[in-house]
Amino acid sequence: QLLLVESGGGLVQAGGSRRLSCAASARTFSLSTMCWFRQAPGKEREFVVSITRNSVYTNYADSVKGRFTISRDNAKNTVYLEMNSLKPEDTAVYYCAAKPGAGTRYDYWGQGTLVTVSS
User: Fold this and answer.
1) Are β-strands 108-109 and 92-100 bridged in parallel, bridged antiparallel, or unpaired?
2) Which one of 76, 89, 102, 110 is CB 3.0 to 4.6 Å from 4, fit for a cystine?
């Protein structure tokens, strides 16, 4: 079992920055691919970015490429999402998720943290 807790959400002006964190409860975090998803009001959840367990590979959605950066600290069981040049369309609840080991699904999800970008 892996418990994920996001933090760092809040209100930010367009063009500003925000850093989200996702803390995991178990050491299996270091064996998991981690991902950030988001869900805007009235829209379906969408993929934002993922990072492999050893941070070698990352994959970004086109909508955030060049503005968002994912990183992780396996010693702290934490994954981060640095968001820069924020736009109103980035307003959403941001969720972190974990795909353990060789799994094919993101089995573990946090409760989400709301980021609101004002214009």
Assistant:
1) antiparallel
2) 110
How open is the CA angle 3-70-87, to the nearest 5 degrees?
Answer: 105
Pairwise CA distance, residues 56 & 13, whole Å: 32
The CA–CA distances, whole Å, from 21 to 37, 42, 43, 103 equal 13, 24, 23, 23
CB-CB neighbours of 104 under 10 Å: 6
Q: Where are the beta strands (DSSP E) in 1-119?
A: 4-7, 10-13, 18-24, 32-39, 46-51, 58-60, 68-73, 78-83, 92-100, 108-109, 113-118
**pLDDT (tens digit, 9 = 90+) per residue, 15-48?**
999 999 999 998 788 889 999 999 999 999 999 9
Task: Answer yes or no: are the C-beta atoms of 79 and 22 closer than 8 Å.
Answer: yes
pLDDT of residue 27: 77
Q: Rg of the chain's alpha carbons, rounded to an integer?
A: 13
